[in-house]
Amino acid sequence: MKIAYVHTGLWPSNSPSLTFASLTAHALALEGQSCHFYIRCNSDLTGVEVFQKYFNLQIPANLFIHQGAPKGTLNTNRLYFHWVYKNLLRLIEAGEIDVVISRNPTFLPWLAKLKKKFQIQTWFESHDFFADPSVRTDLKKPRKKQMHLERKYIPRISGVICLQNSQIELYQRCFPKSRIILARTGVLSVRKKVAADANCVGYIGSLDWHKGVDILIEAASRSASRPHVLIIGGKNQLEIDDFLAKIKPEFRERIEITGWLKREELEQEMQKMRVGIVPLRDTFFNRYLTSPLKIFDFFAAGIPVIAPDFPTMRELIDANKTGLIFEPGNPTSLAEKIDLIFGNQNKHAAMNEAVMAKAGTLLWSERAKVLLKNFKKVADEE
């Protein structure tokens, strides 16, 4: 099928959403007839150069990258969406697009408009949930605009793409007549076994409070294994310095924070990791919605994962096989799980094998196949 994937993020950037969107579009092109990828330009690099530099990938001939004008000209979503819509009209009228996907709630009215005008499939790929604000105890104030957009326009499009079954359940309560499908996040490739001498607990991502990195630091300081902590992330040096300043001086020498890294550098640093930690705080988003790319990065490298006992984490981690589950917010519980893996080489080796086997089922290409299968099913029904 011929797909268009629309995203509003600046491209390239360090945002996980840009990684997700780019690799989804790339996989859809490889598995389908074609994919038109819409993105807001953030550099002078061509699409070919961005994929090569940031993902070490060549783009297939049937992946067409449409970069919105540089920031400063199309600096609002409204102007950008007008530009995307006009471009889509031309391609749809020429028979070049069968399905339009967007992960941005603000594009929902445009998805509904395109479906009504051309009777093509339009899908909302949700990475959150706003339709029922009564359950969002983690938000300081209701997202009324997003709530309105989801409630009004989801019934008018072909369906919603979710990343977790717990997320599907939320949408099904609000939209029992709508199609809600599951298509998990992916991995690029399965690399190799974890080195026997890997001696770090690893974390990938931001240092924001809700990520719970301080829980990881406290757990590592309590661990009998005395592991080094390797953190790949941090928005800038100021944030990194502020974070390090809050850590006990006697423990600081066991912590390394690299800042953001390119894909090749990331994979190189991950070779030092014996186990990956996802220390998320207990929030509604983390418990029912999140699907952290870092887990898939760990799986791709054969690294077992320790994560809190949330529905989202249990969906991704097979407890005692591909990782371990700890009591949310409890550094002592996390320390015990770290020691369990560091102190048992046989257990670690068995988990390593299980992780690599699971990662083979989570390739981006598999995600694209799931999406295309559902799109074809809808096309056959209609």
- Fourth-level CATH superfamily of the largest domain: Glycogen Phosphorylase B
Please report the distance between the alpha carbons of the first and last residues. 15 Å
Structural class: alpha/beta
Per DSSP, the total helix count is 16
State the name of the first-level CATH class of the largest domain: Alpha Beta
CATH topology grouping of the largest domain: Rossmann fold
Q: Helices and strands, in N-to-C order?
A: EHEHEHEHEHEHEEHEHHEHEHHEHEHHH
Gross morphology: globular
As for the number of domains, it is: 2
User: What is the average of the pLDDT values?
Assistant: 94
Largest sheet: 7 strands, parallel
Helical residues, percent: 40-55%
- Work out the radius of gyration: 21 Å
CATH architecture of the largest domain: 3-Layer(aba) Sandwich
Report the count of strand segments. 13
Main attributes of the structure:
13 strands, 44% helix, 382 residues, seven-stranded parallel beta sheet, single chain, Rossmann fold, six-stranded parallel beta sheet, alpha/beta, 2 domains, 17% strand
Question: Could you please describe the fold and organization of this structure?
Answer:
This protein has 382 residues and is α/β, with parallel strands linked by helices. It has two domains: 2-186 and 363-381, Glycogen Phosphorylase B (Rossmann fold, 3-Layer(aba) Sandwich); 200-359, Glycogen Phosphorylase B (Rossmann fold), CATH 3.40.50.2000. Helix content is 44%, strand content 17%. It has helices at 16-31, 47-55, 77-93, 108-118, 144-153, 165-174, 213-222, 237-245, 249-252, 263-270, 284-288, 293-300, 311-316, 331-342, 345-359, 364-381; strands spanning 2-11, 34-41, 63-68, 99-102, 121-125, 159-162, 180-182, 200-204, 228-232, 255-257, 273-277, 305-308, 323-326. It has a seven-stranded parallel beta sheet, with helices on both faces. Strands 10-9-8-11-12-13 form a six-stranded parallel beta sheet, sandwiched between helices. The two termini are 15 Å apart.
